[in-house]
Amino acid sequence: MNQPVEDNFRQQVQQIVAHIPFGRVMTYGDIAAMCGSPRAARIVGGIAHYGDTKLPWHRVVKKNGSLAEGYPGGIPAHEKHLRAEGVMFLPNGRVNMLEAQWRPALEGGG
DNA sequence: CGAGTGACCGCAA
DNA sequence: ATTGCGGCCACTC
Questions:
Q1: pLDDT band at residue A108, thresholds of 50, 70 and 90?
Q2: Chain C positions under 7 Å from a protein CB?
Q3: Burial tier of A90 (Cβ tally within 10 Å: 0-12, 13-18, 19+)
Q4: What is the pLDDT of residue A105?
Q5: Distance, CA of A11 to C1' of C6, in Å
Q6: Which nucleotide is nearest to A41 (CA to C1')?
Q7: Structure pTM?
Q8: How far is the CA of A34 from the C1' of C10 (A)?
Q9: Per-residue 3-state assignment (H helix, E strand, C coil) for chain A
Q10: Is A37 (CB) below 7 Å from strand C?
């Protein structure tokens, strides 16, 4: 249960992002924190740009619920992809962090 | 190997 | 709600 992935930061990021369930979203800061560096939020974004582009990065949003700007296609595209998964959006153009934000800790408690 | 960069975050006015 | 500034850490050229 304890893989030596501690040396691979992006390995974890990609791992987590690849485990984000359908119709859910995660924040850069949270993902970074899960990797051990809560201050590496921007690095998570960087990995999204340099790392494996085959991952569902569109399920990753900012802490305030807004979408990423450097997304391939722009926020308009990022939004569409999320909406395509059933993610609810607010009238201000942000994601409903109350329903979409994924909570891995609740997956085992319900 | 060295220096710069970035799909961010938090605080203050 | 908006604007301005620093920090932080891994990745790339």
A1: low
A2: 1, 7-12
A3: exposed
A4: 77
A5: 28
A6: B8
A7: 0.90
A8: 15
A9: CCCCHHHCHHHHHHHHHCCCCCCCEEEHHHHHHHCCCCCCHHHHHHHHHHCCCCCCHHHEECCCCCCCCCCCCCHHHHHHHHHHCCCCECCCCCECCCCCECCCCCCCCC
A10: yes
